[in-house]
Amino acid sequence: MIITAVPAAVLDRHGLDGLVAALLAQGRTVVGPTVQDGAIVLSELASAEALPYGWGVELDAGRYRLVPREDGAAFAHSAGPQSWKSYLHPSRERLWNADRTPEGGVVFTPHELDPPSYAFLGVRPCDLRAIAIQDRVLTGGRHEDTEYGKRRRRALLIAAECTEPGATCFCVSMGGGPAADPGYDLALTEVVDADGHRFLVRVGTVEGAQLLEQVPHRTADLGTEGAARASVDAARDRMGRSMPPVDLRALMGASLDAARWNDVAQHCLTCGNCTMVCPTCFCTTTEEVTDLTGDHTERWQRWDSCFDLDFSYLHSGPVRSSPRSRYRQWLTHKLSTWHDQFDTSGCVGCGRCIAWCPAGIDITEEVAALDAENGTEAD
Question: What pTM was estimated for this model as a whole?
Answer without folding.
Answer: 0.93
